[in-house]
Amino acid sequence: MTEKEMFAKLLQLGAEWKITEVKLNMDENRIDIWLGTESWSKWPCAVCGIEQAVHDHAQEQTWRHLDTCQCQTFIHARLPRTDCKTHGVKQILAPWASVRNGFTLMMETRVIDTLKECDITGCSRLNRISWDAAWSVMEKAVKRGLVRKDKRLPAYIGVDEKSFGKRHTYETLVCDLERGTVEFIVDDREQESLEFYYKRFGDKELASVKGVAMDMWDPYIAATRKYIPEAEDKIVFDRYHVTRHVTEAVDKVRRQEHKILADQGEDILKGTKYLWLANEDNIPECRQAEFSKIRRMNLKTARAWAIKESLREFWNYIYPGNALKFWKRWFSWASRSRLKPIIQAARTLKTHIKNILTYFKHRITNATTEGLNSKIQMVKEMACGFRNREHYKIAIYFHCGGLDLYPKQI
Ligand SMILES: [Zn+2]
């Protein structure tokens, strides 16, 4: 087998193509392959697809292909042009490339696979391509995925805000809780932000939404009430956000008490912040003895912590009626605690209790899609290198959008 025959097989070229030259440059670890067309070959017009004889050939173009052993491999060809009666002179579409990005389909696919595993810098290093080239593949893959994506409103939606960058800019992320994908990203966390998403759908689709998990955030509540019929029964305040209100109250109690104790020269609460914030099951073994000792001291923080911990039981109820009974007992305990931050948190929850109890009907939370949140977090960390929020959005869609990203052979 000659080298030309070998590369013709490897490149899986049709009979109308031939390899005219192969150059191996071992100093640069590089192989260049030139393709030509057979004189008898016929080509589809790029617009209508009707086959024509070759009219002429366009300027030479180069595509980076997958490496051959340790050598970067480049394909060169002058693509034929047809002269269709209806559409005039048109260059044919290269069967080995999708868009004009200088990569063959196989190389582009390889770059997408690598981008799924690491950040842009890692991808560019592994594939020996520029940062901009890797970025451009990601951008085009997302564009293509969004065009292919069906416009559908998920039955169970999660609405969450994510901060981006240092200047406290926010994005609203709409997730499909069943598929575990980010469906839509829109700037800011205003009522209009979420309305912008809802407005894309008709009345029938909006009525088909079964549940919307969200934080107790007034703009999202207002937007959902305005667009989703029977929203009162469908809005579910996310249990992790609900718990966070109480956890933050515990932290406030701890800070206040620590200050008072420290003024008296007592630093018993020093370095204990995360012990009070964690679930009891998550206390590291090496600190369990210390923690159970502080808990037995007559501290306000320990009382606040006990109230917070007992609320965890609330979520285990099966029937809403029993959950409501538990809630009433918990609320009365919290209200009589004489701990101001805890009383305030309990009151906040009370004003929203109706849509906290909807959890027992729909059982959705924004963490339903646990894997999704960690993926978003990963993109946020990678996003430090991104120049703007548009880049951040593209990366979220790429990693979390569940999109069909790959180029297809024409
Ligand atoms: Zn044509």
The geometry reads as: elongated
Number of helices: 18
Strand content: 15-25%
Number of strands: 12
* Mean pLDDT over the full residue set: 92
Q: How much helicity do the residues have?
A: 40-55%
List the uncertain runs. Answer: none
Radius of gyration computed on alpha carbons: 30 Å
How are helices and strands ordered from N to C?
Answer: HEEEEEEEHHHEEEHHEHHEHHHHHHHHHH
- In this structure, how is the largest beta sheet organized? 5 strands, mixed
Give the ligands present: zinc ion
Gap from first CA to last CA = 29 Å
The structural class is alpha/beta
Task: Give the tags.
single chain; 410 residues; alpha/beta; five-stranded mixed beta sheet; 18 helices; 12 strands; 21% strand
What does this entry look like structurally?
- Strands 1, 2, 5, 6 and 7 form a five-stranded mixed beta sheet that branches. Strands 10-9-8-11-12 form a five-stranded mixed beta sheet, with helices on both faces. Strands 3-4 form a two-stranded antiparallel ribbon.
- It is elongated, with a radius of gyration of 30 Å.
- With 410 residues, it is of the alpha/beta class.
- It contains 18 helices and twelve strands.
- The structure holds zinc ion.
- Zinc ion binds at residues 45, 47-48, 50, 84, 86-87.
Write the layout of secondary structure elements.
Layout: H1 3-10, E1 17-25, E2 30-37, E3 42-44, E4 51-53, E5 56-68, E6 71-84, E7 88-91, H2 105-117, H3 120-127, H4 131-148, E8 156-164, E9 169-176, E10 181-187, H5 191-198, H6 203-207, E11 211-214, H7 218-227, H8 231-234, E12 235-237, H9 239-263, H10 273-277, H11 285-296, H12 300-314, H13 320-335, H14 340-351, H15 353-357, H16 359-362, H17 370-382, H18 389-400
Parallel strand pairs: 2-6, 8-11, 11-12
Antiparallel strand pairs: 1-2, 3-4, 5-6, 6-7, 8-9, 9-10
Helix pairs in contact: 2-3, 2-4, 3-4, 4-18, 5-7, 9-12, 9-14, 12-13, 17-18
The chain binds zinc ion.
The site of zinc ion (ZN) has 7 residues, from loops.
